[in-house]
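Limitations
The structure tokens in this dataset are predictions for the assembled complex, not deposited experimental models. Users should treat interface geometry with appropriate caution, especially where small molecules or nucleic acid strands are included. An illustrative entry is reproduced here so readers can see what is and is not provided.
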Amino acid sequence: MTTGSNEPKSRYLQYLEIVTGSLEEKKRYRQYKARIKQLPENYRIAVEALERYLMHFGPADGAGAMAMYDDLAELFEQGAADGTPIRDIFGADPVEFVEAFMANYPLGQYRTRERNRFTSAIERAAGENTTTKDRTD
Amino acid sequence: MGKLVTEMLKGTLEGIVLAILSGRPAYGYEITAWLREQGFSDIAEGTIYALLVRIEQRGLVDVEKVPSEKGPPRKVYSLNDQGREYLEEFWRTWSFLADRLEQLRKGGK
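Predicted assembly:
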């Protein structure tokens, strides 16, 4: 689900991206925003509310976040094309939906980092000899 | 549908969807529609979509993009060998659970 070229980056681009963050990701994010803008108004409003939640609790940035935004756009484009009512997409409890959705993109989530840290700390405290640390980040 | 069934479904929805796909390939909307027909009226389409993303990530299904008349191409999901294996394990676990619960209900142990 990751896109982007595998060509090596020029040294200039490598240095530039240290300052700016990944340019490829910025481009993908802009493309995502453009897709959302095309949606009918009520879908757009719902997606923007969802984004706000994801900004707080979802993956901060990077490949995990980009895959998530692509999938999000696809879900709502499909919903809008089928005329699926907003409530049918979100269900009675929208939080339940967003949590199930977000769980698919653990990369870059502070919750994932803290969960791994917590798990390793308990393993150490329990005296278990383990090498499983930081499994997903 | 009450809160209880929603809670109970959480652990089984994945198996249910894989079982549906073992019959024939389907896209997300068809799966949701089928579940609604069967009385699972509270299931959000978004929840099913999230589940499909997950089983795709875990390699339990193959995905084919099929052009559609309106909107983006549809993803059609079909169960692959790994998915079939997982589904068998799901049914084994389900039988175990159902059996133990039935014994509890009968007052046995």
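Some entries come with short summary sentences. For this one: Residues 81-105 of chain B form the longest helix (25 residues).
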